[in-house]
Design goal:
CATH superfamily of chain A: Lipopolysaccharide (LPS) transport protein A like domain
CATH topology of chain B: lipopolysaccharide transport protein A fold
Strand content of chain B: over 45%
Oligomer: heterodimer
Radius of gyration of chain B: 18 Å
CATH architecture of chain A: Sandwich
Structural class of chain B: mainly beta
CATH class of chain A: Mainly Beta
Number of helices of chain A: 2
Strand content of chain A: over 45%
Number of helices of chain B: 2
Low-confidence stretches of chain A: 1-22, 30-34, 37-53
Mean pLDDT of chain A: 75
Shape of chain A: globular
Helix content of chain A: 10-25%
CATH architecture of chain B: Sandwich
Largest sheet of chain A: 12 strands, antiparallel
CATH class of chain B: Mainly Beta
Order of helices and strands of chain B: HHEEEEEEEEEEEEEE
Mean pLDDT of chain B: 79
Structural class of chain A: mainly beta
CATH superfamily of chain B: Lipopolysaccharide (LPS) transport protein A like domain
Number of strands of chain A: 12
Number of domains of chain A: 1
Helix content of chain B: 10-25%
C-alpha cells in the first residue's frame, strides 16, 4: 500500500470537515488483501483507564445455556447479551471457551451481532455490526468477521473483517475480495 | 430409537409431576397430604445409614448416607433425613449431592415410576469435582435424581458457582455421565452469568 495515500486517508477519516457538506466515499482496490491500520484516538482518557483496569466482570444473559465439562465450553442461545463496563454485545448465540476454568475467548454469532461501546461522550459513540465476533480476553481484542459495518458518529467503515484492540483502540480493517474493498464513508457534520 | 428414549425420559418427569399433583404436593410444600401420610406409616426406621447401591452388572451406582431413613414397605417409599448421595462417572468426575431431606421412590410397575427416583428438597447442593480440579457447585431447592439414567433435574431456580463464574437459571438438567449441564429460562427469569475477573494479564 502506498504509505502517503494511507496517511492521507487516516487524516481524512478522522477529521470532521466542517466546510464540505457532501458525503465523500473512498474505494480502495490495492490487491486481494487490503489492510488498513487506523490508529484511533477516540478518547485518550479511556485508553489510560482500560490499560490500568485489568480486572473485568462480564454479565451474560440468554434464554438457554449448555455447560460442557469435557469440552470446557459454555454455549448460550437466544437473545444473548454480553455486557462489560465498556461495551455491550448482542447476538443470537455465544460460545465461551475456557482454559483451566478461566475464560479464554467469547464467540458471538448473530444476524447480525452488534457491538456497542459505552461512552459518556455522545459524539464519539461507536457501534459495529458483524456476523461473527471473537473476543480474546488475554489480549483484549475483538475480531469481527462477515459483513462488518462500523459506525462512529456519522462515519462508516465496511469490510470483510475488522480487528479492534480495546486497550489501544487500534482498528484494523481487511477485505479479501477485490470487488468488495474496504469502504470508508465520511459524512461531515452539518453546520 | 431416540424417540423411544425421549418418550421414556419425559414419562419419568411426567410421572413425578403426576405423583405430586395427586398427593397435593407443590414445590413449596413438599411434605403434605398422602405423601406425608405414607412416611408416617413407615415400618422401618434406620439411623446413621450408609447404603451402597450396585447395578445388575455389579458396578457401584451410588452411595447413600443419611442421618435417618424411614421406609414404608407397602409403597417402597423412603423418607431420608439429611441425605448425601455420591457417585462417580467413568471419566473420574465425582458428584456429591446433599440436602436437608429427601424421598426415595422405588421402582414400581405400571403407571407411575419405571425406575428408582430421588426427590431431594431443602438447600440442595450438587458438587462436581473432577480430576482437573475444576469444582462446580449447583444450589437449588429441589433436585430429582434418576441414578440408573444418569440424569438429574431441579425443576426449580438454580445457582451454579464455579472458579470465577456465577450463573442463575430457572431450571437445570444434567447428564451426570457426560457432565453436560443444560440451563433453561422462564418467562420471568433468563439464564444469567456473571464472569468475575475474567482477565488478569497486566
Amino acid at each position: 500500500m502506498n504509505q502517503v495515500q494511507h496517511k492521507t486517508l487516516k487524516q481524512k477519516f478522522f477529521m470532521h470537515k466542517q466546510k464540505s457538506k457532501k458525503p465523500k466515499t473512498f474505494f480502495l482496490t490495492f490487491g486481494q488483501k487490503i489492510n488498513i491500520v487506523l490508529t484511533v484516538s477516540i478518547c485518550v482518557a479511556n485508553v489510560f483507564a482500560s490499560a490500568n483496569s485489568f480486572q473485568k466482570n462480564y454479565f451474560i444473559s440468554s434464554k438457554t445455556a449448555v455447560i460442557n465439562q469435557q469440552e470446557q465450553t459454555a454455549s448460550y442461545q437466544g437473545d444473548v447479551t454480553v455486557s462489560e463496563g465498556k461495551f455491550t454485545i448482542k447476538g443470537d448465540s455465544l460460545i465461551i471457551n475456557y482454559d483451566k476454568g478461566r475464560v479464554k475467548e467469547l464467540l458471538v454469532s448473530g444476524s447480525p451481532s452488534l457491538y456497542e461501546e459505552k461512552s459518556n461522550q455522545k459524539q464519539s459513540k461507536m457501534s459495529i455490526k458483524a456476523s461473527n465476533m471473537q473476543y480474546r480476553t488475554n489480549i483484549n481484542e475483538i475480531h469481527f468477521k462477515g459483513s462488518v459495518e462500523l459506525q462512529q458518529n456519522r462515519d462508516t467503515v465496511s469490510a470483510d473483517s475488522l480487528k479492534y484492540n480495546l486497550d489501544t483502540q487500534e482498528l484494523s480493517a481487511t477485505s479479501n475480495d477485490k470487488s468488495e474493498p474496504v469502504r470508508i464513508t465520511i459524512n461531515p457534520l452539518s453546520k | 430409537m431416540r424417540l423411544k428414549l425421549s418418550i421414556h425420559k419425559n414419562s419419568f418427569l411426567y410421572a413425578i409431576s403426576i405423583c405430586f399433583m395427586i398427593s397435593g404436593t407443590s414445590a413449596q410444600q413438599p411434605h403434605s397430604g398422602s405423601n406425608q401420610l405414607a412416611i408416617e406409616n413407615h415400618d422401618l426406621l434406620l439411623e446413621s445409614v450408609k447404603l451402597d447401591k450396585f447395578s445388575t452388572n455389579g458396578a457401584l451406582t451410588y452411595v447413600l448416607e443419611a442421618l435417618a431413613l424411614k421406609q414404608n414397605s407397602s409403597t417402597g417409599t423412603s423418607h431420608i433425613d439429611q441425605p448425601t448421595i455420591e457417585f462417580e462417572n467413568p471419566e473420574g468426575t465425582l458428584w456429591k449431592v446433599t440436602a436437608r431431606r429427601g424421598t426415595l421412590y422405588k421402582r414400581q410397575v405400571g403407571l407411575v415410576l419405571l425406575d428408582e427416583t430421588f426427590h431431594l428438597t431443602g438447600d440442595v447442593e450438587i458438587i462436581r469435582s473432577s480430576l482437573s480440579d475444576q469444582t462446580l457447585k449447583i444450589s437449588s431447592e429441589h433436585f430429582f435424581l434418576f441414578p440408573s439414567k444418569n440424569h438429574g433435574e431441579t425443576m426449580s431456580p438454580v445457582i451454579i458457582t464455579s472458579l470465577n463464574t456465577n450463573t442463575t437459571a430457572a431450571n437445570l438438567s444434567v447428564n451426570l455421565r457426560l457432565g453436560e449441564i443444560r440451563l433453561e429460562s422462564s418467562p420471568t427469569q433468563n439464564v444469567e452469568t456473571k464472569v468475575l475477573y475474567a482477565q488478569a494479564k497486566k
